[in-house]
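#structure-requests
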Amino acid sequence: MIFICEDDEKIARLFNLKLTMEGHQTKIFYDGESLITHLQTEIPDLLITDIMMPGYDGFTVLKLIRGDERLKNMKVMIITAVSHNSDLYNFKNSGADDYMTKPILLNDFIARVKKLLQRPA
């Protein structure tokens, strides 16, 4: 199962479509609060989350996940429109397993998802 947390409905649906075409099961969340609530009952193989969202942003979500013993080993890919070198350094040190900057090439996205899913937790 792959969770997608993205407040832009078009992007979320595009990721969902591409991932389901590749044979993955997905669930979409449009904000960090609903994602965190749902993680109490189901843990995905991978979380793909945007950084800039209303309420809990991606960094807050990641901090909550890495601080939760049940979730701390869950694989997380950050998606962001930010591309400044200092921000990219922060993403690398945030506890995320991978990150991509928008605009995203879907073939690269799928390749990185496959790589993350093959990597042991």
